[in-house]
Amino acid sequence: MSKKLALLAFAATVALTGVSMAHGPSSPAGEAGHRANVTRTVELTMVEGEGRMLFEPAEITINRGDTVRFVVKNGGALEHEMVIDTLEGNQRHKAAMERNPDMEHADPNSVKVEPTKTGEIVWRFTNSGTFEFACLIPGHYQAGMHGRIVVR
Ligand SMILES: [Cu+2]
């Protein structure tokens, strides 16, 4: 491959990964859930104040096999998102978003929520372990926007 072609291929790869962090049908954190199978609803609020950005509550305990409907209210003045993944997955995704802040997601493990609005994720937890929900918009994780999901 010529240098120019290699560069083009690289640019295309970057463009593709910038469109979506595809997680495929499932991840160690679980899989897209079906609304008809919801066994539990968890309400969360995104909160801003005094230089902090938080999810309330910041820790959730789930039973393995549960299909959870997360109802996330944005109580702040900025756009936020909620992404459910492994701790490592969120760190990789966060680094990708720092390189490409405008990246859009259309993945079943995430939702973007405008101020005063409410968003939803329906997710089935297929494995026990400790997972994470986080806002990966640059700077928000560091301001406190992350929490733990313990699946037992
Ligand atoms: Cu945020």
Q: Which geometry do the CA atoms define?
A: globular
State the major sheet: 6 strands, mixed
Total helices: the number is: 2
Reported by name, the CATH topology is Immunoglobulin-like
Look at the structure and give the mean pLDDT.
87
> What small ligands are held by the chains?
copper (II) ion
Report, as a whole number of angstroms, the end-to-end distance. 50 Å
Query: How do the strands of the widest beta sheet line up side by side?
Result: 1-2-9-6-3-4
Kindly estimate the percentage of residues that lie in beta strands according to DSSP.
35-45%
CATH architecture term:
Sandwich
What is the radius of gyration? Answer: 16 Å
The residue ranges in which pLDDT falls below 50 over 5 or more consecutive positions are 5-22
Overall description:
This protein has a single domain (30-151), classed as Cupredoxins -  blue copper proteins (Immunoglobulin-like). Helices cover 20% and strands 40% of the residues. It is built from two helices and eleven strands. The strands form two sheets. Strands 1-2-9-6-3-4 form a six-stranded mixed beta sheet, with no helix packed on it. The longest helix is centred in the N-terminal third of the chain and has 17 residues, at 3-19. Bound molecules: copper (II) ion. Copper (II) ion is lined by residues 53, 80, 135, 137, 140, 145.
Task: List its salient traits.
152 residues, alpha+beta, Immunoglobulin-like, 6-stranded mixed beta sheet, 5-stranded mixed beta sheet, 20% helix, binds copper (II) ion
